Queue: 3 jobs
Job 1
Amino acid sequence: MATAPRPRTSTRDPEELARRLTAWLGVRLPGAKATGVRVPESNGMSSETLLFDVEHPEPPLRAYALRLAADPAAYTIFPVYDLPRQHRTMRLVAEHTDLPVPRVLWLEEDPGPLGAPFFVMERVEGRVPPDVMPYTYEGNWLHSASDAERAHLEEASIGLIARLHDQVPVGEAAFLALPGEGSALRRHVTAQRSYYEWVVDGLPRSPLIESAFERLEERWPADAGETVLNWGDARIGNVIYDGFEPAAVLDWEMAALAPREVDLGWMVYLHRFFQDLTVGFGQPGLPEFLKRERIEESYARLTGHTPRSMDFHTLYAALRHAIVMLRVAYRQVHFGEAAVPEDPDTLILHHASLAAMVQGSYW
């Protein structure tokens, strides 16, 4: 999978998007011209990103990025793309924290100009740990770094989550509360169940995912813990780094109110996902990087909160990721890039590690 061609993420024509963007920009900045419009190689599997420059007398040439709601014709990863919610979240985080969140500028809720709502933010230059090939593979800048450099990046990245959780007043983030009854954790899990049902509607169900949900109920924490603003997709692949220092925190579409450990479990498991994949392909990867115990220790030192029920939360992260992977696989089926196997669980790239977590033998 790591060496396979990247699955299709859009049916949109980049040249047509560039033309329409120039027309839209001309209304907001008369005399302005969008140049160098392009799709980054790391464009996500959900919302789309365009990079472009603006030529205008006041101010001079500026660099921007545009976040565009997913193309409905591209068999979207998520059922809903709420760009105003993302825009509001980024403004909230910028207002209440010292996290390097890119400055958001225009929000366009009318789908007419580009075919979907979008917002524009200032573009931050730097480098991002790659997903394809994963940063755990030999040959990329993070794998080639020294132990001390990776340790600095690790500590700084955990610090992003710590400061986010500590600095944003939960009352100001009430719009990110998920619907339903019960605690923030119960609502979060309920939302994931609904997402899974949407993914498998009319398609083969996953016995492994369903067993993971059952295991979660068996391990449910006696105390769900404090509710904070969660980044949602808390991982180093969503950070732009200047050297080994975070320069921009990106991708807020999964932000929600939840316990602290939901973000921490996601950070722990998403690295393990890449590390396990790398080992499976015969490379050592980065076994000493972003280790679970060090993430927990660093977070406790930075916040005074000792992470709890982390077996539960890493299982939950692996389960959530499995639902996304199943949707990605079914999108490949939709576009004729893959076929549904006899066992749908094999469509989940990390089915072996998820099964081990369900059985209690992974850690």
Job 2
Amino acid sequence: MKLQVKFSLYNAITKIAIILVLGSIILFSLDRLAYNQLDNRLIKKKNKILEHLSNNEIDSLLNKEQSFTDYNILKEEFIVLTDIADNQSDSTAKVFTEKREIEGDIEVYRILNYKFSYQKNWYNLEIGETMTALQSIKNSIRFYMLVVLVAALLITLVADFTFSNFLLKPFYLIIDKKINLVNDPSHYDYQNIPTSTNDFKILDNSINSLMRKINTLFALEKQFIANVSHELLTPISILSTRFENMLNTPDIPVEHENKIYASLKTLNRLKLIINSLLLISKVENNQYLKTEEISLKQEITDIYEDLEDRIADKNISYRADLGKDFHFTGNKALIHTLLINIINNAIKYNVDGGSITISDKTESEKYTLIISDTGTGMSTELAENAFDRFKRGNSEENGFGLGLAIVHSIAKFHKIKVDIKSEEHKGTSISLIF
């Protein structure tokens, strides 16, 4: 999971948790808030009535000519004024909830009760509002609270995602340009990625420093390969020539001749190992060009002509059935080496009278070349380690375990996937997926 996604998820989870806590607090205190709001409305109405109080108003209310306000049809509010004894003292407004019957209908009202003196007479004023109004207030508060919280959540999430994207942009540039897109240390770009974050600057400089060391080691390795090519192969060639000259010496004893012949054979094996390792190293160090147009069908035809005698010697049935002449750009010599190694193994580890089948298929825009044989096959463990150097699929045969290692290096160089399926005493199938 990307760092940016983790940041966004963390911010989302924490904000949702905060909103849930705040929402719960508001919901628990909603009744108190609604009651306070309703009580304040009643007090304001009481103050307004007292402010515009007159004898006519008092007479009208006492005679119950206006028991209700303008909303008396819905019976949501009422105003009742009664004359009380004059021996009262000043009182504060009291608010309570009570059932009242108004014109035959019983409703639950929030009632403000207030005793006051007007022109030396005492009166009791009651102003009531149904709890329907309270529920309306609570619903309004819930709705606006939900809208505000959701809007706040969305705004903060978008803001956090945008800011984290802006903040981490240099980090992803460093990963892409300095690591993912680097195939050759010699072509590495040491220019720093613009950023104001000190942590990313340290990361960028550390990668640059590491790549300088790798580039130095890479150059040394190339130089070493060139030196090995000259320093090892030249003495081997000289020794081979000397042994061959010794074999041409007249009257050489047979036992000496056998020892010289065995030494020549060992030198040739050593030369083959060195050449194979040099090939793998050069391929892995990208010292070859991929600029040639290659026809797989033509390459397989050429390889069959080269190996036709060996195939005939083991009475192997050979069939190349390619439905498509697949072309691609690469290094022709290396692809030839890759294919000849696979087909050579199919011959080498096959049984007398066995078969080799070369076929192809195209699935999901991927071309696959399949080379199958009916040879001795490999165990599951050996098949898993088939690409490791100096490990062979069949230890009873002569070899150095470098054939499939070469195949793997060349395939990786051309971005070809190699898949091996093998079963002991039944054969091996190698798929090259382009």
Job 3
Amino acid sequence: MRILVATDAWHPQVNGVVRTLTKLAEAAKPLGVEFTFLTPQSFRTFAMPSYRDVRLAMPRPARIAKLIEEARPDSIHIATEGPIGLMVRRYCRQRRLPFTTSFHTRFPEYVRARVPVPGSLIWRALRRFHSASRAVMAATPALARELTERGFDNVVLWPRGVDTGLFHPRAIDLCLPAPVFLSVGRVAVEKNLEAFLDLDLPGTKVVIGDGPARASLEEAYPDAIFLGEKHGEALAEIYAAADVFVFPSKTDTFGLVLLEALASGLPVAAFPVKGPRDVIGDAPVGALDQDLRSACLAALDISRQACVEFAANYTWEVSARAFVDSIRAVGAVLPGRTGAQEARFVA
């Protein structure tokens, strides 16, 4: 089975959408499923206003059609609601082709952090975008319920995973005053990093990631350590060396970094909001509190082994199988592509 994924978020961006799609494609190979990606790399791009590190594509309908037809997919999945996502949706609608979508970002909260736009208007646009999808994939049961309550149809669960071969406990010393409170992610206004950096905490605050707010935050918080983007073993070692993972965002739908931290044996401190609450639930692996400082201090007493055992329940293999099963269950296979191509899928 060959699945084409249309996404406006792609390398060299570093975010949860890119990591999710990359790991999904890797995990799907043993299932007999091949992924191809339609990304901004195939088009002219321009810098996103207020976030110049992110470049938006300028796709033309003819170019979109040519790339899709050259890929000869068995199924089409639209991962983002940006220019590429909109053009691929239009291509499918004009040809009456089935497709699926996924919901990654709380755009109403994301946009309102930058400009005063009513959230109701953005939710209306999102409902319209996803309305023709055979399956709208959501990362957690709570998010799936919320989307259904907001009028989205055909919502299904698509769980996420974590690479426990990379993220796991190990003996690493950062040679910093302990305890080390770590935050990982895009350094941008919607991530609410000031809520973490303003806290009166013992030890050291470390921030991993880059983004438009980094320069101003480094200047405003000289006592915090900003290490920029880290990947692979370098990132995994910092996770393992820290004492608490602090997740101040109130806008994320899931937060893959939560699973990466937990797999590394790092307890989580966060606000009791969707995202961390959906991932952690009642498990004894994090402290969720409206008082983020209290959550950080409480997390110091959480068992690191409990965190590792919790994260072991999330695998990319399970995630990939759920993704492919949802496509097949809703009949989102293109006409004339249900024979030998589908037979390549190993159930």
